[in-house]
Amino acid sequence: MGTVQTARTLMAMEQAPPGVDPHIPNAARMYDYFLDGKDNFRADRELAELVLSVLPETRDGARENRKLIGRVVEYLIGQGIRQFVDLGSGLPAQQNVHEVAFRLAPDARVVYVDNDAVVCTHGRALLAGGDNVAMVQGDVRKPGSILDNPEVRGLIDFEQPVAVLMMFLLHLISDEDDPQGFVTAYRDAMAPGSHLVISHVGSDAAPERTARISEFYQQANAPFCPRTGEEIARFFGDFELIPPGLANGRKEENVWPFTDPASEMFVDEEMARMGYVGVARKP
Q: What span, in angstroms and rounded, lies between the C-alpha atoms of 204 and 219?
């Protein structure tokens, strides 16, 4: 039985792989549940259902974020980017970074980084034998350990333009972990012409609902920390935001290629404004 199938069999039996506590809800596995995945435990599903009870649009938001990744990669390939580092990637599922990138540019190189042992075990099995792609276990809050990782360095040349993706990541990191500081470290390591991509839940549109969800996430392995548009914009530092800038999905704005006007997310304008997306280029 393959590694992925073995782990999924254990999950179906509510038996965790070594080093994993199935009784503590995990943000990555909750995200997998929102996407109708199978890599989650009962505790993950129960907390995810609490989130959905307050914000049922979360499932549509997670799906939109997956489609968003594909559109962003297509855009970046068109800008000549051939190196991608996907931080807090989760599982490299269908139509993820490497599939889109390799279809458009077979010479592209992709590194996925996640701190979840189950995610990395599955990811390595799914990517086994693939050229120019790797799954690395690491803590994105410690940029030195990622930037100097031999597997990362084996594929990514930071002296050349690179795209660093932080999709649905930073709102799972508290201010105590200094996200502004470590995002700055990644920006500083990137060559001119590189791009930083961030999608982040905002707190502007529905502060009461997001505050309730933050309370739920106190039971999980990671906090839920939505931020204002102004706070999110600071993550880009002096990088040049690609028009239309930091987009939050309002219907009256031209936000292509970072949002999809046909998406169900746009049915509820309040929900649309809860998701910010920005792509910025290093001068």
A: 24
Tell whether the model's pLDDT for residue 15 goes beyond 80: no
Whether the pLDDT of residue 251 is over 50: the answer is no
Task: Report the phi/psi class of residue 4: left, alpha or beta, with left for phi > 0 and alpha for psi in -120 to 50.
Answer: alpha
Q: Which residues of 74-213 form beta strands (DSSP E)?
A: 83-87, 109-114, 133-137, 163-167, 195-201
Cα-based angle 62, 117, 77 (whole degrees, multiple of 5): 50
Q: Are strands 163-167 and 195-201 parallel, antiparallel or unpaired?
A: parallel
Q: Long-range contacts: 207-213, Cβ < 8 Å, 24+?
A: 209/54, 209/55, 210/55, 210/274, 212/54, 213/51, 213/54, 213/55
pLDDT by residue (tens digit) across 206-248?
Answer: 888 889 999 999 999 999 999 998 999 999 999 999 987 887 7
Q: Per DSSP, what are the bridge partners of residue 102?
A: none
- Does pLDDT of 67 surpass 90? no
Given a contact cutoff of 8 angstroms between Cβ atoms, the answer to whether 248 and 198 are in contact is no
d(CA 113, CA 123): 10
Cα 213 from Cα 224, distance rounded (Å): 7
Alpha helices in 108-241 (DSSP H): 117-127, 143-147, 150-155, 179-189, 207-216, 229-233
Smallest Cα–Cα separation from 229: which of 181, 175, 183, 276?
276
